[in-house]
Model the fold of this input.
Amino acid sequence: MTETLENTHYSTRMSVGKHWSLRLRRGLSLKISDLKGCANVGMVLYNSMNLLERYNAPDTLKCQHTFHLTQGHCLYSDMGRIMASIVYDDADGHESICGNTSALQIANQYGARDYQNDRNDWYQNGQDAFLVELAKYGLDRSDLPANINFFNKCVIGGDGGISLSESNLNAGRSIVLRFEMDCLVVLHTCPHALLKSSEYPQGEVSLEISDAPSVEHDDQCMNSCDENKRGFENNRIYHLGF
Done:
């Protein structure tokens, strides 16, 4: 599959420090592009039909024997089903272990700004950005699982410490998710928690929702490991109940 999508239904752009959510149907694709470089897109997923079912980072990583998520990998729910598949990625991998920035971290690192005084020039943090969106669906802090951070890849040092890789932070990087079940998608564009910078970043990402090609027998994501084959079978059985 290439990054070119057909039958685009919706597109938008988001600067740093913004948040967004939408219910997306099974069979749609979401293309996320880093337009200016050094982006971070935090994301969590929920089953639209049952918000108790949500993205599970530990299962996603251990089922596919990986530390970095990239093309060919799937995003698992906590019920062993596949919520979305990564069908295209030229961003060199993404992490799902570092979580979000907090208001305190943002204030300490970049200076204290709030919406009441600074309006659109304030500094939002990832934790609160998620909570604002979750409240729209009756969810709160207790419903926030470990998230994915797209466009950022972690490396482990000899001392066991974690840092961000600087191998590919260029503008123009894209990732395409194909949704395998109806999902509530919640995301933000706040800085990554491990970003080493004294200035709040200035960047922009684009979102593009399109129709996804159907899953064929030779699908890369389904066939990348036996666990994914079982995950797709779990999806098939689940959708028999609709």
About this structure: Residues 6-239 form one domain.
